[in-house]
Write a structure and sequence with these properties.
single chain; 145 residues; alpha/beta; 2 helices; globular
Length: 145
Amino acid sequence: MRVVVQRVRGASVGVADETVAEIGTGVVVLLGVASGDAMADAHRLAGKVARLRIFENDDGRFDRSLLDVSGEALVVSQFTLIADTRKGNRPSFAGAAEPALAESLYERFCAALVDEGVRVSRGVFGARMAVALVNDGPVTIVLDT
């Protein structure tokens, strides 16, 4: 499982020219699920995202988490994060989980974030989405299982 966390001032996701989710201050989470991933991975990464200290304190130091700033999360499934580009120029997605497993783990990750106390908005699993965001910093962190 690979997660890309971007600290944002605001973000939205659209499907077919219609906005389906929108957040203010918080994080956009791009979530890629690999074939060997399990429910425990989703829980562990959700806890890490909720507690990741990437928001600044009064002194400008990264010392506050999503929970500390009452931020929101916009979670978007993105199987292309699992791409293997070691051979040639065409990415291979052979390591990505089958859609049924990926969707189940995506839902479990979102539910685990909610259980942590985070307000969660979601993209549409499997849809072609347009993600718009204002990256604050910019701050972008990659987490792997």
